[in-house]
Amino acid sequence: MPHDLELDALLSIPALFAPRVSPDGKWVAWSWSRLGPAADVFAAPTDGSQPPLRLTETLEGDTMVVSWTPNSEAVLVSEDRDGDERVRLFRVRLAEPGVMEPLTGAAPNYYLRGGELHPNGRWLIYAANLDAESGEEIETDRLYRHDLQTGERMVLARPEKGSIPWPELNHQGTHVLYSRNESHPAGQQIWLVDIEGLEDREILNFGPRLKVSASWFPDGRRVLFVAEAESYRRLGLWSMDEEPVRWLVEDPARSIEYSFAPPNGGPVVVVGVEQARVRASLLDVQSSAETSLQHSRGNLIPLAKVDDGEWICTYYDALHPVDLVHYGANGGAPASLTGLPERMDIDEERLVAAEDFRWRSVDGLEVQGWLYRTRGEKLGTIVLIHGGPTSHAEDRFNAQIQYLASRGFDVLAPNYRGSTGFGLAFQESIKHDGWGGREQEDIRCGIEALIEAGAAEHGRVGVTGTSYGGYSAWWAITHYEPAAAAPICGMTDLVLDYYATRPDLRPYSEEMMGGSPEDVPDLYRNRSPIEFVNNIKGKLLIVQGSKDPNVTQDNVQAVTKALQRENIPYELITFDDEGHGIARPKNLRVLYPRLADFFHKAFDVSSR
Predict the structure, then answer these.
(1) Class assignment of domain 352-606?
(2) Which of 248, 259, 492, 530 is the most buried (most CB within 10 A)?
(3) What is the pTM of this model?
(4) Which pLDDT tens digit goes with each residue over 472-530?
(5) Is 104 exposed, middle or buried (0-12, 13-18, 19+ CB in 10 A)?
(6) Beta strand 112-117 with 101-102: parallel, antiparallel or unpaired?
(7) How far is CA 462 from CA 405, 458, 478, 581, in A?
(8) Could you tell me where the beta strands, DSSP code E, fall in 347-496?
(9) Residue extents of the structural domains in the chain
């Protein structure tokens, strides 16, 4: 069938993520999915002197780049089991591609974060919610120095609660930078501990409810950090040499998302996102001179400077899948480092571009989204809601959107309040109501705006999304009347989900809802779609990954019982080898046509 041919072409395009440049700046490693059963790790020299080298070829679990070894001769990678997110660490040397040397134990019963090798080649630094003495999983993370020769795990830091998302060892191997969120679920502070665990101290704290993120400069003495103020983020520098904090960018008009110092030196990279578009710049810390990157289209994010004066960058938009490119100061067209254009079996003319679409919500707030218009006869409109909610829909290639457009659907990807990419105040505004508040009205108003503009029809609008997007699809079908909803890995009972999810994710629920289910039980209950299934009028397709540790199958089991109790019909599709989201190509070949057929049938029925 032509549609199957279109899908095969779209799913043959590899999806690139997590690129990391080596300490010497001569190599870049990344993960590519859709070139095999799961994601694998590739690497290429930054000068473009040879094609990508495949470092892993795994079958059951996604393999991700974690870090480079200090000598730039190997990468550390993580691999889970069918999306269960309980990763094991391996070392893969550039000289021995395909050989995965295990560094941590098989089938872990805990969640491991980070992973960096000490310059002595013996110590491995990572965080895990593991009690090393008993071998049992615990609620709170510990920061470990793992001796690869003896197997001993030495605890460097013991937070009283919470997780350590990504500990970072400096290049010299003397200190580890990490974050804590003990003071308040909405906040994050930066701590520093020496490699012997003798001095563990807080170094950056701007308030219990404010977040700070930080990373090392290559010199191992200075720390670059981004700190929240009340309504914006500012960029600063902290030094171990007892100098006071120096502010590099402190402008309430700027929308800074994150910043980092390239591993091989050079200007600091400042990444801003304004109106969901990347605005990256290069900042000279000594002179404070800042240079914006000039390019004609798409999103361009510099990673590191290479020997010829050019930069290695990620580059993408709706018509160009994420790629690694060379970028010169003259602003010419970025040149692919990976050979991705040659791998694509679909012309740009067959893809649809992202169109900026805006509307007003119930309280007058302006909301933005990306509208993709089908090139053929329109069968209806699908609203694809992003997850997070601390994330945003971008002008970015998306195989699902392109496939749905090829099947005759317009697609709207809304950036409701709570999304990143529109400033800190917009991101934080979702907390005013908690989940299931006005952010859901933002989505509903977007549908109404499409109908009012003549870009959609009553009875021919459906909603879908993964994770928080799945929760929003549940909310839509239980609170207003789309013709159909297809929630993917979406929360249904917020109380049940709080206790069933990964322990490190519970503080996020508390941050968004203003407390735990014990603190605000009525809010959790009133914002749970399972309480309103009797309102469902449209068609319903539930999609779930069986190994999902974030939004577990408990959500599906609970809601299907409620649906059966109310005699509400539904369809259910589960994938035994998927976790939080459906990602494997063989499963996407099932899911995407199923979604298209489901919405097409629902629109035909509702329009009669």
Answers:
(1) alpha beta
(2) 492
(3) 0.95
(4) 999 999 999 999 999 999 999 999 999 999 999 999 999 999 999 999 999 999 999 99
(5) buried
(6) unpaired
(7) 14, 10, 13, 19
(8) 355-360, 366-372, 380-385, 409-415, 461-466, 484-488
(9) 352-606
